[in-house]
Amino acid sequence: MQCHYCENEADVAVEKDAVKVGVCQVHFREQLEELEEAEWLSDVDEELDIDRSE
Predict the structure, then answer these.
(1) φ and ψ at 16, to 5 degrees?
(2) InterPro entries under this entry (predicted)?
(3) Is 49 left (phi over 0), alpha (psi -120 to 50) or beta?
(4) Other C-beta atoms within 10 Å of 12: how many?
Protein backbone atom coordinates (compact mmCIF):
# COMPACT_ATOMS: atom_id res chain seq x y z
CA MET A 1 0.00 0.00 0.00
CA GLN A 2 1.20 3.50 -0.83
CA CYS A 3 1.36 6.41 1.63
CA HIS A 4 -1.65 8.72 1.45
CA TYR A 5 0.67 11.76 1.34
CA CYS A 6 3.58 10.68 -0.87
CA GLU A 7 4.86 7.95 -3.20
CA ASN A 8 6.57 5.92 -0.43
CA GLU A 9 5.40 2.54 0.79
CA ALA A 10 3.00 2.80 3.73
CA ASP A 11 4.40 1.60 7.06
CA VAL A 12 1.10 1.98 8.93
CA ALA A 13 -2.41 1.31 7.65
CA VAL A 14 -5.73 2.06 9.33
CA GLU A 15 -9.10 0.77 8.24
CA LYS A 16 -12.54 2.05 9.19
CA ASP A 17 -15.85 1.32 7.53
CA ALA A 18 -14.09 -0.58 4.71
CA VAL A 19 -11.87 2.44 3.91
CA LYS A 20 -8.15 1.74 4.33
CA VAL A 21 -5.54 4.52 4.48
CA GLY A 22 -1.79 4.07 4.78
CA VAL A 23 1.04 6.40 5.73
CA CYS A 24 4.82 6.14 5.66
CA GLN A 25 6.85 6.57 8.84
CA VAL A 26 7.65 10.23 8.11
CA HIS A 27 4.03 11.21 7.61
CA PHE A 28 2.89 9.05 10.52
CA ARG A 29 5.22 11.01 12.81
CA GLU A 30 4.00 14.31 11.38
CA GLN A 31 0.40 13.32 12.07
CA LEU A 32 1.29 12.29 15.63
CA GLU A 33 2.95 15.66 16.23
CA GLU A 34 -0.23 17.41 15.09
CA LEU A 35 -2.31 15.20 17.37
CA GLU A 36 -0.07 16.02 20.34
CA GLU A 37 -1.13 19.64 19.95
CA ALA A 38 -4.84 18.77 20.04
CA GLU A 39 -6.48 19.25 23.43
CA TRP A 40 -8.93 16.37 23.02
CA LEU A 41 -6.03 13.91 22.92
CA SER A 42 -5.22 14.50 26.59
CA ASP A 43 -8.83 13.62 27.41
CA VAL A 44 -8.46 10.33 25.53
CA ASP A 45 -5.19 9.62 27.34
CA GLU A 46 -6.92 10.08 30.69
CA GLU A 47 -9.81 7.84 29.60
CA LEU A 48 -7.45 5.05 28.58
CA ASP A 49 -5.46 5.32 31.82
CA ILE A 50 -2.24 4.21 30.15
CA ASP A 51 0.68 3.30 32.41
CA ARG A 52 3.86 4.57 30.75
CA SER A 53 6.19 3.73 33.65
CA GLU A 54 7.43 0.52 32.03
Answers:
(1) -150, 130
(2) DUF6757 (IPR046645)
(3) left
(4) 14
What span, in angstroms and rounded, lies between the C-alpha atoms of 46 and 2? 33
Radius of gyration of the CA atoms of the chain, in A:
14
Tens digit of pLDDT at every position of the chain (54 positions): 999 999 999 999 999 999 999 999 999 999 988 888 877 777 776 777 666 665
- Angle of CA points 1, 32, 12, to nearest 5°: 20
pTM of the predicted model over 0.85: no
Neighbours of 10 (CB within 10 A): 20
